[in-house]
Specification:
- The chain is an alpha+beta fold.
- Among the domains are: 2-37, no CATH class; 94-170, Glutaredoxin (3-Layer(aba) Sandwich), CATH 3.40.30.10.
- The chain has six helices and six strands; from the N terminus they run αββααβαβαββα.
- The protein has helices spanning 2-20, 68-71, 79-94, 107-118, 132-141, 162-170, and strands spanning 25-28, 34-37, 98-102, 124-127, 149-152, 155-158.
- The strands form two sheets. It has a four-stranded mixed sheet, with helices on both faces. Strands 1-2 form a two-stranded antiparallel ribbon.
- Mean pLDDT is 74; it is low at 44-61.
Length: 171
Amino acid sequence: MKVNGFFLAFFVLILVIGTSSAEIYKWVDDKGVIHFSDSPPQDISEASDEEEVSSADPKPQDNPPPNVESQNAGLPPNFFDILDESAEEAEAVEEPTVEIYVTSWCGYCNKAKNFFRSRGIEFTVYDIEKDRDAARRMMAFTTRKAVPFVVINGHGIQGYSEQAYEMALQN
């Protein structure tokens, strides 16, 4: 009986030691989503902390740049200018439109404003007690008169919820 208890305790100890030595990886993807995993993300180098990079390895600046003219052969001369302009237009379109309906006495309204300020996202604030048109616009989205009420890209969110704001900003 004592032997079985000893083996059981030994087995549990081995399990605890094995799981306690596992590493947890944390990373943020392209969309700003935080991930936790027991394996590293695929785009991280497989080199461990113990491996050293040899000084004989060529550095990126040591390699000459490829011949750009040969790569662009057959393309119109202003092809890349057109791509740059369309990328700028796409960035301008991706900027979210945010409206926050508030009252002067609402603490959560201030939290909502600070949430968007901390992320550098521009927003428009409407005080529903001072602006009747704003109150009507808000009531077009919801029947509740609770604030804050945030509209992100046409999607209404009742109350203060960082998770809901993040999800609406991603869409």
